[in-house]
Amino acid sequence: MFLFWNYRWFLLHFIFEQLHINYVITTWPTSNTSNIQLLGLFKDAENTSSPTDLSVHSRAMFKAAVLLSQQYNITIEGQFIGWQTVQTGASTIAAVSGVCQALSTSDIFGIVGPSLSLEVPITAEFAKEIGIPAVSYAATNPDFSNRNMYPAFYRVVPSDSAAAIAIVKLFIRFNWTSCIVIYQNDQFGTGGANIIKDEFHKNDLTVATMVVFDIETRSIRGNLSTSLIGSTSRIVVLWATSTYTPLILQNALDSNVLGPKFTWILSSSVRLNSFDKKFSQQLIGMLTVEPTIASAVGASINTTL
């Protein structure tokens, strides 16, 4: 009987989640009344069966902002602002292709996105060439703050420099002097690893070991156990997105290099219940350094939006 009710609860939860996602995606009014449009770039591929929360929620906020601009009678050349969206599938080519297709049919005056740091360089360069701004809601690589290299690129989230400074303050608070950095080998990962090294150097701290997670093979380069146990540090900073963090942590669990032997600091949150319960003790003590909502720290927010 217990298993039967568990199954019914799981089925109900699944249906609710699907209805929630479909509601967010399908109930928006059309925005074809204006030829002057904003173009939104979002991570998920078209017609994906498992959309990410970030992509679904970002698209919802994007469309809500455009609808609010219409309610507030904000116009450009006498016309309300419309929208188009492109789901890039985390592909730089798909992102640029989507921009080109939108430009061929509408007067696009700005790009909202992309979300991934790996998509930014070519998208930002393209935006500069055609003379429109690109404003990202999620790309955090510190390199993109360079106004000379990226004059048309802006963002509404802090760069990874802020997270690196927070990590340094954490080390100073607990008198830690060195760390091991594990990072994914793309724009996000290398940018984060470099800014951590720079901030550590400024504060007389040491990055003892650098370990690469290859996003193509989805595996650590070399032997994780050997790299960590052979290091002089027992603090691990994992700089990876939520897509790859569970894979790396599972590797660490299999190699027995999590707690209590090592203290891990993550750059993204992870669901601990996704791991086997037998590892629960080893997962105790992990820290996460990531942006939070403004209201959580007493900062002002746009309550209307």
TrEMBL record:
Gene Ontology MF term list: G protein-coupled receptor activity
Q: Name one Pfam family in it.
A: ANF_receptor
Per UniProt, subcellular location reads as:
Membrane
Entry membrane topology: Multi-pass membrane protein
Q: Which UniProt keywords apply?
A: Glycoprotein, Membrane, Receptor, Signal, Transmembrane, Transmembrane helix
Signal peptide residues are: 1-21
* Domain Receptor ligand binding region, first and last residues per copy: 88-293
Which coarse location class describes where this protein primarily resides? Answer: membrane
Please report the name of this protein according to its UniProt entry: Receptor ligand binding region domain-containing protein
Q: What is the lineage of its organism?
A: Eukaryota, Metazoa, Spiralia, Gnathifera, Rotifera
